[in-house]
Amino acid sequence: MATNLLKSHFPMIQSREEILARIYSNPKLQQLFESWTSLQQKEFLDFCSGAKGIKVLYDSFFKEVMNPEYDPARLESFLTTLLNRKVRIKEVLPNDSTRLSDENSLLITDIIVELEDGTLANIEVQKIGYAFPGARCACYSSDMLLRQYKRARQRSIDPVTGKDTFSYRCISKVYLIVLYENSPAELKQCPDHWIHRSKTIFDTGLSMDLLQDYIFISLDIFRSKMHNKKVTTLLEAWMTFFSTDDPEEIIKLITDFPQFKPMYETLYQMCRNVENVMGFFSEELREMDRNTVRYMIDELQKEVDLQKAAIAENATIIAEMNASIAEKDSTIAEKDSAIAALQARIRELESGNSSDLPS
């Protein structure tokens, strides 16, 4: 049985009966539990009892297991694997970007760290892919680059002499890393690829680093590509950790890559605090509802924009057709006028010929 399989590796997992007993012994927890749908109740009990694996991308789970402040090695390992270079986290930056507050609510996780070499990395998790992802990501990356510039300016001023030693060489690269649980339409157009890396290049071969790199990860596409395939690389192991809640896959993962077992132990220890986990699960459900509403608004806006574009195109075509008709009408009028003039001339000539005949 899947529950027993996970519990044999994680003995701190509580049984379904133990969890329900704790819920129904507390009126507030009982009221909260009964406010959920039956499917939501089942989902909660499944991951707490080990009937299914934990969904690591839940905000509180992800932030706990990947917290760079008290256990930076985990996030460092992920970034090292993803960026193909050794990474050390120097500082965790506050999330005080200029994004609109309603867009911040759509981000399940948003962690910004400064690496040892001054590079900034922004790690985001999105449950539902944004509409217009390119424009949004460009704005977010530019926001990080501006933050980098401001920090470099502040650090370049000598606190004693006040001398400014700023140079643009002080500004380091910024990475925007987005993990999509459900990819936006643009990424689904590339069903054979689950990771996309981007940097600005020039068509002339000009070598110039514009400092903004992007990495988009489609976990849903990864799952479809890895179906019935063995996880062989550490990058694939990380993607499996983020995307699977299948107990058998989790056991395979911690067997082949034992460094992930302590991460699951952290998460199952969290699940022992039923009250706290119920609280963040409720918040997760609220965020998902808000995400869905915003996603639907974005999708409707896309439809409206397409309809407006179609109407504008049709209006242009109609205007061109009207202009063509008007031009043809003008040509016809000119021809009618010419014909009328010829007819009048013919009548004149006929009239003149008649007056020349003998009486």
What does this 3D model show about the protein?
By secondary structure, the chain is of the alpha/beta class. The protein contains 14 helices and six strands. The protein has a six-stranded mixed β-sheet, sandwiched between helices. A hairpin with a 4-residue loop joins strand 2 and strand 3 (120-128). Helix 10 (219-225) packs across helix 11 (234-243). The N and C termini lie far apart (128 Å). Residues 97-108 have low confidence and may be disordered.
What is this structure, in a nutshell?
This protein has 359 residues and is of the alpha/beta class.
Major beta sheet, specifics?
6 strands, mixed
Compute the CA-based radius of gyration.
33 Å
> How many DSSP E strands?
6
Major sheet: arrangement of strands = 1-2-3-4-6-5
Indicate the low-confidence ranges by residue numbers: 97-108
User: Helix/strand-derived class?
Assistant: alpha/beta
List the total number of helices. 14
Instruction: Tell me the helix content.
Output: 55-70%
Distance between the termini: 128 Å
Strand content: 5-15%
What gross morphology would you assign?
A: elongated
- Mean pLDDT value: 85
Topology as H/E string?
Answer: HHHHHHEHEEHEHEEHHHHH
Characteristic key phrases:
single chain; 359 residues; alpha/beta; six-stranded mixed sheet; 6 strands
